[in-house]
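Run: sequence + magnesium ion -> complex structure.
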Amino acid sequence: MVRIVDILELTVPLDAAVANAVVNFNGHTVSLVALVTDAVRDGRPVVGLAFNSIGRYGQSGILRERMIPRVLAALPDDLADPTTGWPEPARVLAVALRNEKPGGHGDRAGAAAALELAAWDLRAKLAGEPAHATISHAFGLPLASRPVEVYTGGGYYHAPGSGHTLTRELQGLRDMGFRSFKMKIGGAPLAEDLRRVEEALAVAGDGSRLMVDANGRFDRNTALAYANALAPYALRWLEEPCDPLDFALQAELALRYGGALATGENLFSAPDVRNLFKFGGMRPGLDIFQMDPGLSYGLTEYARMLSDLEGQGFSRAQAVPHGGHLVNLHIVAGLGLGACEAYPGVFQPFGGFSPACRIEDATIFPSDAPGFGLEEKPQLAPWIAQLLS
Ligand code: MG
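>> structure
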């Protein structure tokens, strides 16, 4: 049996002097966690590593005060998969959530996710394989054989005088091998945003290669005005036009806007997602679900969401997780989801992938490193060393 002998957490600052319509990412943090075990490979303890995605905050308090003590106090049998004797992600999650009421899925969903995802990294390392292979196997899916489509998140609002232009940003991303680009809207007046959309289209070449993200900012009138103004561009999708929990307005927009809508990155539980597809007017074969395992209790809960979606006639090709980092790359590849987000150069040390993951013609394939391969990412390696020191 493999036992978890220690759990470490380090709150890492996010390097991102950018803003969307709602949030400036300067000052954001992420919890990097390690499950240290008594298993040894190559003379060193096997350690499961993960983090609670990007875009919220580190969850040191919830982890250190509630969840880490619960997991460390658990009996080995409470955590172990009976067939392998290894800590099982779903059991680690269940123990981390002991004595927590249902509902109210906020910051604790990210805290729990960091631990649950670290258990996946651990499981893959114990098996000596990349996490996408462990994930495919665990969910009875064929091993990923094709690279996954990758598109860039970006097109943020930069501070005046930063010298940044949208054209230069997207040209740089195109030179890196990307073909589809997402940009922010809602941080400027509609006319200025439309000018930015046209600037981006000049690089993207076609509306099917451009997505816009309002980050849940608009009220009903603004959302409808943007939907009307954007419709002629036939963009790939319009993301979070309204508050993520305003399912009635989401449904109204779905009736009024012919193109694809995307939402879900700010829903952190399977019951929330059930409400989205029951009441939010989401359309099978068209709209995009962006729930992020790292913000929503990890892969165990994400798999429940996916199963619910498929039970309602949606396709897993419509699942495109928010995030843009190595953990979600393995999840997209392992579960055969629609596409993977990327943030090259932004949100370091977590955003983007490792040099061993090759990006070519708008696709990417994870490397063969065991687990999520976080140790291969040069920006992250020093933080991992600090966490484990
Ligand atoms: Mg978004």
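>> summary
The mean pLDDT is 95. The chain has 13 helices and twelve strands.
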